[in-house]
Specification:
Among the domains are: 168 residues, Jelly Rolls (Sandwich); 34 residues, no CATH class; 31 residues, no CATH class. It is 11% helix and 20% strand. It contains 14 helices and 32 strands. By secondary structure, it is of the alpha+beta class. It is elongated and about 125 Å long. β4 and β5 form a beta hairpin. The strands form 14 sheets. Strands 1-6-3-8-2 form a five-stranded antiparallel sheet, with no helix packed on it. Keywords: Signal.
Length: 612
């Protein structure tokens, strides 16, 4: 459970506050006689005019004096009756308590709702000398309406001074100010929506509402566009690529080797194979070598060339395998682990045997000294039976009374009593939460020794299944008892996810390639970051450097000329050779050399052929 948050919105130096309190008291603003209701403000004290759920059956203002720890401040029965009608008062739901407080005493005073194991929630500390301080507390509800009680919670008794509380606001927390964890596919619901979690506050961003696939010559909506979540071109649209034969039989043009061009420009689509594109045959025990190597001639980084496991992959040795901490007492690495290929426990490890373990000396038993004792009276020959030697007949529900070594007896009636809930631990903290150790307004210790007597059920909540891109609630989650992922959620796997730019669905796009499941592991998620691995332009080199200039931005994703480079045009090039001039329409010709951009000035323009 999150700890409560207390916000002190009005603070003043203690001496000044105390003087102000005395002045207010002298004018009759503060009364020190008895706990009585004061007039409340006509304005709504809740933030942004939200509906105040503070029970209308309770007093709107209170003056508090003469309290012991855990004494109720508000009427318990009225509070429980009102909260029992509030649909959102549930264990785990976030709520806000806010009010205006004045403390004319010399000691700070703490108030809050009760919870199990002597815990509290929505606790507010009113500083000594505080005058008209606006204080608030936010946090999850820790007890049901039938056990709710607003108490004085300090260990010291409240015997001097008084605390007034007015303008009280009690309301469920709302989504205003909440930030969704996946802004590309999520947006925050209305500010007045109840809750403060991803499940309660976030709605999906849909491609049909966020994206226009334009220009239409380069992009078209994906097949599931109307139902797909997303807000980017890559996430919502499929790219239209140029036909491979568009440049065939055109005089003055060769097929452009660039890949990934979108639109109506003709090009070649082949590039030299590199280890960057190779997938190791057994990803369980192999990993790809670094994509860059140092050229021994130039000393610069170049892409690693190759097309096979030998050139592109390296085996993982057992020396790199890490035994989980919980298994380190049961397993150890095999001898010569550096020579063994593997990445699993059974491949790299062997069990530890008890033959190697030395047990400590046993100190729990010792021989009894047997000797004859002279005597003929009870005092000489007998030992008194004390409850310290008695075992209660049912240790589950009974415990020994206090000071058993001084209490004579040998029966349950003489030596045992029912156990207290304060000594009971709920059987499963993921399914049960301890209720208050005391019974209602009487503050009598609650007796019990079972979940049903001492605990309340915890039911699965959607917020447990986080992140929502990797987990979803089980079909019967709301009616199931629990609070953990395994109890309440089922995984979302990457198997049906298509990475952005993977237009043909083969798992390999120009900016992402899909992670591969193995026999022992399945990738989980429904986003590029969870299901795909990025391709960076730093790992890609064009095969026609005279026609392209690498983009200046860093960490760009891509594996094609268009994604990673800017086109060089002959219109920006000046011919170097004497007697040479630019070819016609230089703005349509890619290049940065005389051979690509220039022609002899005195030659007839017979090299240009009109293509029908």
């Amino acid at each position: 459970m999150k700890s409560f948050v207390v916000a002190l919105l009005a603070t003043t130096a203690p001496d000044v506050l105390a003087e102000k309190a005395r002045a207010l008291r002298s004018r009759g603003v503060l009364r020190l006689d008895a706990t009585s209701a004061l007039k409340s403000s006509a304005e709504n004290p809740c933030p942004d005019g939200a509906e105040n759920k503070f029970p209308s059956t309770l007093d709107t203002s209170y003056t508090v004096v003469g309290k012991n720890k855990l004494d109720a401040v508000w009427d318990v029965e009225k509070l429980r009756e009102a909260l029992g009608k509030e649909e959102r008062w549930k264990i785990g739901e976030p709520w806000l308590l806010k009010g205006t407080f004045t403390n004319n005493g010399a000691e700070p005073r703490t108030f809050g709702f009760q919870a199990g194991e002597n815990k509290g929630f929505l606790n507010i500390l009113v500083p000594a000398g505080c005058v008209d301080c606006t204080l608030s507390a936010m946090g999850p509800v820790l007890t049901s309406a039938q056990h709710a009680e607003f108490q004085y919670r300090d260990d010291k008794s409240f015997t001097n001074g008084e605390v007034t509380m007015t303008n009280l606001c009690l309301m469920p927390q709302v989504c205003k100010g909440f930030e969704c964890p996946h802004p590309l596919t999520q947006k925050v619901k209305a500010n007045d929506t109840f809750g403060y979690s991803e499940a309660a506050c976030c709605a999906p961003r849909m491609c049909k509402d966020e994206v226009t696939c334009a220009p239409t010559t380069q992009w078209e909506p994906r097949g599931d566009f109307d139902a797909r979540e997303g807000s980017t071109l890559q996430g919502c649209c499929s790219a239209k690529y140029c036909p491979t034969d568009i440049c065939d039989n055109m005089t003055g043009w060769d097929k452009n080797p660039a890949t990934g061009l979108k639109g109506s420009t003709k090009e070649e689509c082949c590039i030299q194979k590199e280890c960057l594109d190779w997938s190791c045959s057994d990803v369980r025990i192999m990993r790809r070598r670094s994509s860059l190597v140092v050229d021994p001639v130039t000393g610069k980084n170049v892409t690693r060339k190759g097309w096979g496991d030998v050139e592109c992959c390296e085996e993982q040795k057992c020396t790199e395998f890490s035994i989980p901490p919980e298994l380190q007492s049961l397993w150890k690495l095999k001898d010569k682990a550096a020579e063994i290929t593997g990445n699993e426990l059974t491949e790299c490890c062997e069990p530890r045997l008890c033959l190697d373990f030395s047990c400590p000396n046993n100190t729990q038993w010792r021989p009894k000294n047997a000797s004859a004792l002279p005597g003929s009276t009870k005092e000489q020959c007998c030992e008194s039976l004390f409850c310290s030697s008695h075992t209660c007949s049912n240790t589950t529900t009974l415990q020994k009374k206090v000071k058993p070594e001084e209490r004579p007896g040998s029966t349950d009636e003489e030596c045992c009593e029912e156990k207290f809930c304060k000594d009971y631990k709920c059987s499963d903290a993921t399914k049960w939460i301890h209720i208050s150790d005391q019974l209602g307004p009487t503050n009598i210790d609650r007796r019990g020794s079972s979940d049903e007597e001492c605990c309340e059920k915890i039911f699965c909540r959607e917020e447990t299944c986080s992140p929502s891109t990797m987990w979803k609630p089980k079909a019967d989650a709301k009616d199931s008892q629990g609070s953990t992922m395994s109890q309440c959620c089922e995984p979302i796997y990457c198997g049906n996810y298509t990475c952005d730019t993977d237009d043909d669905g083969d798992g390999d796009g120009t900016m992402w390639y899909k992670k591969v499941d193995t026999n022992s592991y399945k990738w989980q998620g429904s986003t590029n970051e969870e299901c795909c691995l990025p391709k960076y332009c730093s790992q890609y080199t064009t095969s026609t450097p005279t026609q392209w200039k690498r983009k200046a931005a860093k960490n760009i994703q891509g594996s094609t000329d268009v994604e990673c480079y800017d086109q060089l045009w002959c219109s920006d090039y000046c011919c170097v050779g004497a007697g040479w001039e630019k070819k016609p329409e230089p703005q349509t010709r890619p290049g940065s050399t005389d051979a690509e951009c220039c022609t002899k000035a005195d030659l007839p323009e017979t090299h240009v052929t009109k293509v029908r």
